[in-house]
Amino acid sequence: MKNFEISVLDLAPVKHGKSIHNTFQDSLSLANHVENLDYKRFWLAEHHNMESIASSATSVLIGFIAHGTKKIRVGSGGIMLPNHSSLVIAEQFGTLESLFPGRIDLGLGRAPGTDGLTAQALGRNPATINEQFPRQISELQKYFSQENAKALVRAIPGEGLDIPLYILGSSTDSAFLASELGLPYAFAGHFAPEQMEMAFNIYREHFKPSEQLENPYIIACVNGVAAQTSEEAQKMATTLFQAFINIIRNDRKPFAPPVDDMDEIWSPMEKSMVLQKLRYTFIGNQTEIEDQLKNFQEKFDVDELMINSHIYDHQKRLESYEIFRKAKDCIS
């Protein structure tokens, strides 16, 4: 079994009864905690029009987290590039890299990170997304290059900076693109597990080396809920289950505290849908997490596992990431 890194995906989750200010302070607290545990990176994801997620101004929040930490890499998981001008993103991340040299990642996705109506408000054109996204990536690479110094349009800050790009995806389309461009690939297994195995195979089979990357590099994002006992972890995971029920019901309300019995909340069909979407979710005590990590890595052989955690109690969330660190170290 190949050794792998562990990292964090944070959605800046807004909890019932808590303010967004509390949310951002919890995110910073988590970043400091996992930095001390030697997690590799801390990524934030762009979402819009959701009461439960406060990371819409992703670049701003990355700056806040990077300023409050010392060594952990901080970045986007991801910036939904067709929502933005390539030049603006180059300038924003050029600014971040200039402020925090050697610590900024730029993960890029093509999805809207929201509903259709909000996507329209963001100025997206669905008819051109598949063409626009690869072109925008090329534009970013150009803006970051030293050679662009002679161009009429330049990214200042940004030009000449080494800001690694990552392709994010939840389907095989992204795997083909990441392999063609020779960029590292992060898959959203925490909410779209169906095509993950096929996407990894495509990426590895078709990968072309690039200036940034000589060999394929795969990040798998999964959900994680760890506790001292299996029973406690299962109860804590009901916050995650409720969040996915809310997605099915198109209800964007803040994350709810855990409950004793999910059967009082979901229907049998909803339960089946949620558990299918959460196929790659690690829940349990340290021993159980060790077994789940080992089985996952033996199957997928990833370079990095990025853990997303919907845990209502902040201290329990910190403890969960500590248990994952211990579990990972025990199987390495």
Characterization of the model:
The chain is an alpha/beta fold and 332 residues long. The protein folds into two domains: 5-223 and 296-310, Luciferase-like domain (TIM Barrel, Alpha-Beta Barrel); 224-295 and 311-332, no CATH class. Helix content is 44%, strand content 15%. The protein contains twelve helices and nine strands. It has helices at 20-36, 58-67, 86-99, 116-121, 129-144, 172-181, 196-206, 230-236, 238-248, 268-277, 286-300, 314-331; strands at residues 5-10, 41-44, 73-80, 104-109, 165-169, 185-187, 218-226, 281-284, 304-308. An eight-stranded parallel beta barrel has the order 1-2-3-4-5-6-7-9, surrounded by seven helices. Helix 6 packs parallel to helix 7 (196-206), helix 9 crosses helix 10 and helix 11 crosses helix 12. The radius of gyration is 19 Å and the shape is globular.
Layout of helices and strands:
Blueprint lengths: L4 E6 L9 H17 L4 E4 L13 H10 L5 E8 L5 H14 L4 E6 L6 H6 L7 H16 L20 E5 L2 H10 L3 E3 L8 H11 L11 E9 L3 H7 L1 H11 L19 H10 L3 E4 L1 H15 L3 E5 L5 H18 L1
Parallel strand pairs: 1-2, 1-9, 2-3, 3-4, 4-5, 5-6, 6-7, 7-8, 7-9
